[in-house]
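Example (one chain per record):
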Amino acid sequence: MYVHWPTLGWLMRRGLLETDVTVRRGAQAAGFALALGALGSAVSLARWLDGFAYPAFRRTPVPPPLFVIATPRSGTTFLHHLLALDDERFVGFKLYQTIAPALLLERAIGLVQALDGYTGGSLGRVLDAIDRRIFTAWDGIHQVGLRADEEDENLFVYSLVSPALYLLFPAIAAHPEFIDITGLGRGPIRKLARDYRETVRRLVYLTGGTRAPLIKNVLLPSRLPVAQQAFPDARYVHIIRDPREAIPSAVSMFYAMWQTHSPAIAEDSPQTRALAGMFLEHYRLLCDEGHRQPPERWVSVRFETLIEDPVGTVEYIYARFGLSLTLDFRARLERATSDARRFKSRHAYALDRFGLTEGDLRRGLGEHWEVVNQRPPPSRTASGEAGA
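Predicted structure:
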């Protein structure tokens, strides 16, 4: 797997040697380096051996993936879960599969799971404990678990080209290529695209080779050139949410993690404002890309419409891509959205909590401000007015 080694050196210096480093953040940085080294080495070796153990996987064609993309806190998890109900058409990653993206490791995990049946499910209890220990900071914000359907950002954490690294190293301005990967140049992008395609090929091979990959990623805007080079025939669903709601909510996710290792960082701080700037850049990148892509490959829907009429939104997406809804899939959609309507988020985040104003967002988005705030009237369904 490709690794951008200069970034590792910088991260370790930033995590261990800077004067403002806390003991906790230093310990987390050291732990991250050790875990990355151990896991990365094991995954790289297993991926190399995959070619000998499972030579047929290299001949497996990769159907055009469907990406669900947006800035964080824009409904991607909800839409991803709805589309995943069409399990005759789509297949997606579990979180553990993005941590161990190799066929040999997948087979080993499957063997352990089979043996767990003889131990009364003790492995499941261990995994539940790991989930509670690792993901506690996001309780009530975003549900995460090793066995849950999840985005594939860990694949890029291995390569050290992911904005997710800001969770441990909150120095956003120091590595702008995390925000927009074009700063790394063509060589790294080509290598990342090759690795990305081969990882998705493994997923397709594991699941029978017929279903299209369904991929959710809220940090993909930073790496759109990688996805496009890896999958030139991919299709994209872009969810647009009012940035006055999405951006403070997204900043809160990173800030919750920062509080576990750098509690001195204030809510209204240069770090949180720089993070908001990254999300504004991602809004711009997605809006620009939406204008470049042909309509048969790019669909934009409003978050508000998705929440008001989820079934209509899925129908609209399928119609735009020339896909058909089976009766079974539609029935599953109806049941799932009926359950979802009972849920109301307990969290609301204000811009001023992080030292931001609506004027900051307007200036940051420029010509895109009007586009991202075009809300359809509540009475209209996604099939008529979801596009933006």
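Caption: The two ends are 37 Å apart (CA to CA).
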